[in-house]
Design a protein that fits this description.
Oligomer: single chain
Largest sheet: 8 strands, mixed
Distance between the termini: 53 Å
Number of strands: 30
Helix content: 40-55%
Radius of gyration: 36 Å
Strand content: 15-25%
Strand order of the largest sheet: 3-6-2-1-9-11-12-10
Length: 812
């Protein structure tokens, strides 16, 4: 024998109730069934709304009541094709609706509603729906739940009268041979009178569980509108998926913390009788669903699911007068229980001077009132502080029996939250180690759920959410590289890169689910204008987990927003070298914010494009080595110019070639001035542990100052005047078997950049094309300095270096 419960969504529409019919009649071919049904979806709320309107004297209650009548009539007309059967059913339905209408008229006259009247009113939903389902299913009979589901009143609330209920269930069901019995859920009756009561909102689940446990059913099936328990709320987590198996303990923990798949009291009766629960989807009956029984299956994950309560208020009872005083907590929970207030989280300091209590916002004001009254004397004497409620909070719970005796779960949880800028206000874990619950700012709930789902491998992929600023040659190349590598990263590294924001100098587009990279330029063009401050504010406002800001510009205004982004736990990857080479205090501040927030500020491509220069220096320093001297050719542009310089390519033509090939800036004077090399040297010296400012670097120009002072057009006009001079010196160097190299050097606290002649024995002599080279002399590498060489310019290699920094944040 099996008990099947169908919720409001399963009987709320023509399609769903016809699915119910097919499911039940198919199952009935193999075994005896007891079918428990809820009211039509939304009807219970409608019944209460209509009652409140009537009490207020608002004649709109008549319209609301008519809608209730119409909905039930339309459903009957649509699903009961047999005219005589339909007419017979409508007689029963209309009799109940007439009773209900008379009650509403009475409320409108007396302008008052009692708990007894309210319980009677809401019972009509299940009383009518159960009659419709019975008429719909071939061979079904209907039992009246009020005859065997009995309650008693404690603290002003209805609770199950267990012994009486069990006795009556056996009396009505034992010996009955009907193959399909339909029972209205939720409804009950006081054991001492004929008064209609109920088992509370969601009580239809409880009705089914009570019957299943009492009759020792083979299984309790709960049919709803989802495929089962999900790893998290799918409305928040796009890639949440169905949990195939839960233990009773895990299911109870998830239910108590907001997972609305099952009414929480449902689980205990079947747990006690060791009856499995199967959660199924009326709209997807072929789905596996979620099975709940005594054992927790190890699915290779530490936690099974995440649940949350949105409307949390936190009360803290505190005072030094509590320390060492026996019975304080007993008084707290006694007075709350007497007031009918449920507490779902308790956190106490080991010093005993404070106890924090999590409860629903609706109970917060009353809880403060009764607690302040209970401790009135202590508060007046200064032994304790007045109790106040902190609202706008949410409670999150991670659940899983695999957390037991598994070291490091809380550490990983807090590290993950902290890295994403999520502050834990209160935390609690029971001795069973199956639930870790914590309170956060409600505004951070979405971000919290996403980051936990991602970090604890409940998601198929780890997700990085990227905001890309700058779509020039480097930025657009990066987008192409990400697009081409996406599937490989998913397959080989379980990493999903989402570009959730793209900005250029005037526009920005955002989508927290990820932008379409095939038409981002058109989307940008059509978007509204967005300045740098607005870009910063929108990124912070989106508050996305595992977020990375990628700067592929050379814009000072963009670099200026790094502190704000880092302070909101947004990682920064910069091809833009302005921030790292600006004044030393700014550089230090950015590094300090990143360290304190446990996030990353990475700028490998600031020096040497894709070459691993900065990371190599960091590795040397972190392993105890000391950088003694830095020598480097750091301008791919200048190296290209001096390498192509020849009898047939004069200086002016070499500079123009560098611009055409994309090696130089649009204004090549930026490269020729050595400013870019100075910035790079400053960054390297700082990463090596030295304080160096740009103005402290000695600069020896090889182009007359007058070419830098005029316009760009004047520069191109005057540049050929230098061709003869450079050609003469080039011929002399060829005879001496030497090459020009623009070398940056840092040693003994001094930095310099200058055009130098190197002979064929020098490591820099054979440097080709636009390559960069760096020579590091350290305490370990003193006799034979470390040499790093390779492509130092170009959009694709720079983009690849930026991509590598993004991968470092993903820890790949």
């Amino acid at each position: 024998m099996k008990v099947m419960k169908f919720g409001g969504t399963s009987v709320g529409s023509v399609n769903s109730i016809l699915n119910l019919k097919d499911i039940v009649e198919t199952a009935a071919k193999n075994e005896r069934l007891i079918v428990v049904v809820s009211a039509l979806g939304g009807v219970t709320d409608k019944l209460l709304k209509t009652a409140n309107l009537a009490v207020d004297g608002n004649l709109a209650f008549n319209e609301e009541f008519q809608e209730i009548i119409t909905r039930h009539h339309e459903l009957v007309d649509a699903v009961i094709p047999d005219e005589s059967k339909r007419a017979e059913l409508l007689v029963e339905v209309d009799m109940l609706l007439n009773e209900l209408g008379n009650i509403y008229q009475g409320l409108a006259l007396i302008n008052n509603i009692t708990p007894k009247s309210e319980a009677t009113i809401v019972s009509y939903g299940e009383r009518i729906s159960s009659r419709i389902v019975t008429a719909l299913i071939n061979g079904a009979v209907r039992f009246n739940a009020r005859q065997f589901i009995k309650t008693e009143t404690k603290h002003g609330k209805y609770i199950l009268a267990s012994e009486e209920t069990e006795r009556l269930i056996h009396r009505f069901f034992d010996g009955n041979t009907s193959n399909i019995i339909v029972v209205p859920g939720f409804i009950a009756q006081d054991k001492e009178s004929d008064e209609i009561t109920n088992l509370g909102r969601g009580g239809s689940d409880y009705t089914a569980a009570i019957i299943a446990a009492t009759l020792n059913a083979d299984c309790l099936e709960i049919w709803t509108d989802v495929d089962g328990f999900m790893t998290a709320d799918p409305r928040v987590i796009n890639n949440a998926y169905t949990i195939k198996h839960l233990s009773y303990v895990e299911a109870t923990e998830l239910c108590n913390f907001g997972a609305k798949v099952v009414y929480p009291p449902t689980i205990y009766p079947v747990f006690k009788a060791n009856i499995p629960i199967l959660i199924k989807n009326t709209f997807n009956p072929q789905g596996e669903g979620t099975i709940i029984n005594a054992q927790s299956e190890d699915e290779g994950r530490l936690i099974k699911g995440i649940s949350s309560i949105n409307d949390t208020s936190l009360l803290t009872v505190q005072g030094l007068g509590m320390v060492g005083v026996v019975g304080v907590n007993q008084r707290i929970f006694r007075v709350l229980a007497n007031a009918g207030i449920s507490v779902f989280l308790v956190a106490q300091a080991s010093s005993e001077n404070s106890t924090s209590i999590g409860l629903r916002h609706v109970d917060a004001e009353k809880a403060c009132e009764v607690l302040n009254k209970e401790f009135e004397k202590e508060i007046s004497m200064g032994l304790m502080e007045s109790v106040h409620a902190t609202g706008n909070l949410s409670t999150v719970a991670i659940v899983g029996e695999n957390m037991r005796h598994n070291a490091g779960i809380i550490g990983k949880l807090f590290q993950t939250l902290g890295r994403n800028g999520i502050n834990v206000i209160a935390c609690a874990q029971g001795g069973q180690e199956t639930n870790i619950s914590f309170v956060i700012d409600a505004a951070l709930l979405r971000k919290t759920l996403n980051v936990i789902h991602d970090s604890f491998f409940l998601s198929e992929y780890k997700v990085l959410n990227l905001f890309l600023c700058g779509i020039g040659t480097v930025g657009s190349s990066l987008i192409e590289q990400i697009a081409s590598q996406r599937e490989k990263l998913k397959k080989e590294h379980s990493l999903q890169l989402n570009i959730v924001g793209i900005a250029n100098s005037r526009h920005a587009i955002f989508n927290r689910d990820g932008l379409d990279l095939t038409n981002y330029r058109a989307a940008l063009k059509e978007s509204k204008e967005c300045n740098t401050a607005e870009l910063r504010d929108e990124i912070i406002k989106m508050n996305i987990f595992n977020s990375v800001f990628v700067d592929c510009t050379a814009n000072a205004d963009v670099a200026a927003i790094y502190p704000a982004l880092l302070s909101h736990n947004i990682n920064v990857v910069a091809a833009n070298k302005i921030a790292a080479s600006s004044d030393y205090a700014t550089y230090q501040n950015l590094k300090q914010i990143a360290r304190s927030r446990n996030i990353k500020y990475l700028f490998e491509t600031n020096v040497g494009a894709g070459l691993p220069i900065i990371n190599t220096i960091n590795d040397l320093i972190n392993s105890g080595d000391k950088i003694l001297k830095i020598e480097a050719v750091l301008s791919g542009t200048l190296n290209f110019i001096f390498n192509v310089l020849g009898s047939d390519i004069p200086m002016s033509e070499a500079v123009r070639l560098a611009q055409e090939k994309g090696y130089s800036e649009p204004d090549p004077r930026i490269d020729l001035s050595g400013k870019d090399v100075i910035r790079k040297l400053v960054i390297l010296a700082r990463e090596a542990g030295y304080s160096l400012e740009q103005k402290e670097v000695e600069t020896n120009l090889f182009i007359p100052q007058e070419l830098f002072d005029g316009t760009l057009e004047e520069f191109w006009q005057k540049l050929p005047e230098l061709d003869e001079k450079f050609e003469s010196e080039r011929k002399q160097m060829v005879a001496e078997r030497k090459h020009w190299r623009f070398i940056a050097k840092y040693e003994n606290g001094k930095g310099s950049v200058s055009l130098c002649k190197v002979n064929e024995r020098h490591p820099f002599y054979h440097l080709e094309g636009s390559n960069n080279i760096i020579l590091l002399t350290t305490e370990r590498y003193k006799e034979y300095p470390m040499l790093i060489q390779g492509y130092g310019a170009g959009a694709s290699v720079t983009a690849a270096g930026v991509f590598a920094d993004i991968m470092r944040i993903a820890n790949i």
